[in-house]
Prior knowledge:
The structure is a homodimer.
Chain A: E1 25-30, E2 33-41, E3 44-47, H1 48-53, H2 71-75, H3 78-92, H4 98-105, E4 108-110, E5 115-117, E6 125-128, H5 132-143, E7 159-161, E8 167-169, E9 174-175, E10 178-181, E11 190-193, E12 197-198, E13 201-207, H6 217-223, E14 224-232, E15 234-235, H7 236-242, E16 256-258, E17 263-264, E18 272-273, E19 293-294, E20 297-303, E21 310-316, H8 324-331, E22 343-345, H9 360-363, E23 371-372, E24 378-379, E25 387-395, E26 400-402, E27 406-411
Parallel strand pairs in A: 6-22, 8-16, 9-27
Antiparallel strand pairs in A: 1-2, 1-5, 2-3, 3-4, 6-7, 10-11, 12-15, 13-14, 13-22, 14-16, 14-17, 18-19, 20-21, 20-25, 23-24, 25-26, 25-27
Helix pairs in contact in A: 6-8
Amino acid sequence: MSLMKSWVASANTADTPFPLNNLPYGVFSTDDSDPHCGVAIGDMILDVTALEEAGVIKIDEVPVFDLPMWNEFMDMGAEVWTGFRDSLQELLGADADADTQAALKGYLVAQADAEMHMPFAVSEYTDFYAGKNHAVNVGTMFRGAENALPPNWLHIPIGYNGRASSVVVSGTDVRRPWGQLKAPDAQMPSFDPCKRFDLELEMGAIVGQPSDGPITVGEADANIFGYVLLNDWSARDIQAWEYQPLGPFQAKATATTISPWIVPAIALEPFRTTTPEREKELLPYLAEPKPGLFDIDLEVTLAPEGKAETTIARTNYAQMYYSAAQQLAHHTTSGCAMNVGDLLGSGTISGPTKPERGSLLELSWGGKEPLTLDTGETRTFLEDGDTLTLKGAAKGNGYQIGFGDCAGTVLPALTDPFKR
Amino acid sequence: MSLMKSWVASANTADTPFPLNNLPYGVFSTDDSDPHCGVAIGDMILDVTALEEAGVIKIDEVPVFDLPMWNEFMDMGAEVWTGFRDSLQELLGADADADTQAALKGYLVAQADAEMHMPFAVSEYTDFYAGKNHAVNVGTMFRGAENALPPNWLHIPIGYNGRASSVVVSGTDVRRPWGQLKAPDAQMPSFDPCKRFDLELEMGAIVGQPSDGPITVGEADANIFGYVLLNDWSARDIQAWEYQPLGPFQAKATATTISPWIVPAIALEPFRTTTPEREKELLPYLAEPKPGLFDIDLEVTLAPEGKAETTIARTNYAQMYYSAAQQLAHHTTSGCAMNVGDLLGSGTISGPTKPERGSLLELSWGGKEPLTLDTGETRTFLEDGDTLTLKGAAKGNGYQIGFGDCAGTVLPALTDPFKR
Lengths: 420, 420
């Protein structure tokens, strides 16, 4: 697959994240408009809510883009997803006639003039733990190298239910949380601001079709609408004290940042790649009918307040042991109903070497090996004022598919958390 | 507090669960109507959706009861909750004049003619583990008597995020789940129907007002709209294999049954009782400004298919170590936003003696001590066709406050879970 040409000139460069091949879904506002639906093309946004209002595009008898979220569109199913995408590629393609181009130009808004909002309403949020390097690193730190991987890990895409209300769009500041903490040598716990605040580099898969009972990996794959970058902000000291025996709770509830653009699953098709060789044979219900991962380069940058950013990690989504389709299929085994707008976090994505690790917990090895930034400063965990940014791109022949930055700045903890 | 008299005669008995003192919120349908809002009084339901349509009651400029859920009403806040309740007590009270009675009679529907539905849309569902006898019992079975309680248990109301899509109303059949299982002595896991399907006797607290940062226990208490009975169906064999290190996931996702009526928190005020003496001093953020529990008698019955029911457990909500208000306050510590319709499960409620245990796991001590039913049959875990019913009543002076039964029947597992 190579670059598909558009009459929107900025969409035709090798380094735009938003060529005609991508057409990701977002929600934006301008000085003159409330949040509504748009599709990114080059450095512009096509205002699909306005296009629908004007009757230029029509998805259904009733409006689909009248709410500031893509949920209604997702709900309509894969045929509608494909049909809409096909027509946008025709309307925005280099071969579109002059009348079409003239008609659409009035519906293009510069991304520079737009503010981005949550692209969809999160129904429920599940976070997985399906990157093997991450699981081995964390397990080694907590339980020693011999017991690094829990016995179930090579058989189950381990996941836990997260908090949908924690999910925010890129650019939302993240307040350092308070929580119940206890240092290993302390007699009693205390209620204090988190001292070990961390990021987790993940991808998020968005469920676009409901299911009401166990589904196969193939069915699960077809139900995934698109992908976002996802930062699962984590309070390591809260987590260490609270997580036994029922898992992380308040440690993961402060914020979960996603990128502003949902990249359609179909735009990632050319980048499909297999999950790694299985170390233990998987049960048949987890068998993959086709390669389940995607070759997406990922990186994390950290910028101290008012200073330049340093890339602190580079890795690839292909480092996952389980695909999103496998995770979704496992999620349904008990009969668990899945709904439009459910969000599945992949789990932290770490490569095999140190500069490929997707969390500060791993990069600083539990705080023991501080990281030196390009500014000369060091970091074990996040400091107030730090801006964390996740970036991702699937790289094709002369083009790439991007998600927009997934960024957040750490604000200092409140002096008194009960007085706002 | 004693029985408040109503002109609806069936509401004036000592054993009706729905006297004028209660007035719980539900959603019902009849042969002639779609699901809509109603309030229980004696053996009748007051059709508040129809009353609002007819202009007899008015909460707001726009309709509040036009959707089959109480979320919009909850959203309006405690003053509206109290005002509405006061006016219903006036309209339905024994002192109401003849015109009022005549006008309202046409809006009373016999409960016998109504089908009950989910009384509210569950925003997110969190399940706690805050009953000490249950935690000690389970901990003893899994880790031995010395390590029964995890080190954090006496300091934190331990909870985990559950699956909102699993919540169903009483009367919904529950299909025995498939899942990934591994017997301790097996080499490899298998994908099979659950063999150790269980109930958990709990109370559910419903969040009626949003919060967006840490709140105190007092503020949390004021945000709780009402209470339901809750059965947290649990697949023990799935749970045992999956729950380390991130907690229960598919084991708890098959179904969570709630009673059809939301009992207003204010109706339970006369039954307030203190949490037990603290074994470790709690951190100040968990301090209770007033008694946080309620004296509510609870019982569980089990009826094999086509046979009479046996009461298998009797206990009281006052057995909890942490109150719902403490749980909600803890839930917000990290800055976690809470929303209208969030549901908090108390955790399994077990008393100190064997007949007071709220799960078969405890009653049969992990399957080692089968329970004998009144029919002569025995049970370790649930069998297909079993109907489980939770019942609850706060008992006052000549009256009681009930929730309606919280029941579900276990259907056999599907032969092939991927073919429905």
